[in-house]
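Postdoc handover notes: sequence design on the structure in folder B. Input tokens:
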């Protein structure tokens, strides 16, 4: 279903789909939100403009990409969503919820990550 997703994201999506019994539509939204987030991370970590028309292919990345993210990256992403993409607070909150669920899974279920950079970030007020 998510063949173009890197393995570290696919394992999370599979968990949501099969263990937590989330709908395919919900899991697809998780994928789209995480793809947007990790594309942003790749671009900004490489010093490139996240508003560029060229979106990086993240399929070849591994869990080290997720491990490279810190709290400041997530705040920066939320600011990008608000200012550049003009996403509404509810949309930003949904994207943050996907990021939180992803990091919670990889720190407490798969144990592939030691730190959760999203744990202390408040959701945007709606």
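Designed sequence:
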């Amino acid at each position: 279903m998510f063949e173009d997703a890197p393995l570290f994201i696919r394992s999370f999506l599979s968990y949501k789909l099969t263990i937590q019994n989330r709908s395919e539509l919900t899991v697809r939204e998780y994928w789209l939100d995480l793809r947007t987030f990790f594309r942003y991370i790749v671009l900004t970590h490489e010093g490139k403009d996240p508003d560029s028309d060229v979106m990086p292919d993240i399929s070849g990345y591994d869990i080290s990409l997720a491990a490279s993210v810190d709290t400041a990256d997530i705040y920066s992403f939320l600011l990008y969503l608000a200012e550049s993409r003009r996403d509404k607070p509810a949309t930003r909150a949904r994207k943050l919820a996907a990021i939180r669920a992803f990091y919670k899974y990889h720190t407490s279920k798969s144990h592939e990550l030691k730190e959760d950079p999203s744990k202390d970030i408040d959701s945007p007020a709606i």
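Context for whoever picks this up: The radius of gyration is 14 Å. Don't rerun without checking with the PI first.
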